[in-house]
Design brief:
The chain is an alpha+beta fold and about 70 residues long. The protein has one domain (about 10-65). It has two helices and two strands, in the order H-H-E-E. It has helices at about 10-20, 30-45; strands at about 50-55, 60-65. The protein has a two-stranded antiparallel sheet. A hairpin with a 7-residue loop joins strand 1 (about 50-55) and strand 2 (about 60-65). The N and C termini lie far apart (about 30 Å).
């Protein structure tokens, strides 16, 4: 079982809440948000790489790729 930070601060409480929601959220961007809140940006980079690039189809959207579960948004 994954250990979560002690909820002694508001940040710790926010991390615990975000970690508990990771599997429940449907949106890939919400999942990424929960992962970043739960593990921090540096912690997230330990598990995979996040690539950010402009959409080459000129649709005005951005592409976020992380761990294979995010798609074009």
């Amino acid at each position: 079982m994954e250990e979560y930070p002690a909820a002694t601060t508001a940040e710790g409480e926010m991390q615990i809440e975000a970690a508990s929601q990771i599997e429940e959220v449907a949106s890939p961007l919400q999942k990424l948000r929960c992962l970043v809140l739960a593990r921090g940006y540096d912690g997230l980079l330990q598990f995979g790489k996040i690539d950010y690039k402009a959409d080459t189809r000129k649709s005005g959207h951005l592409s976020y790729l992380a761990f294979g579960f995010l798609e074009d948004v």
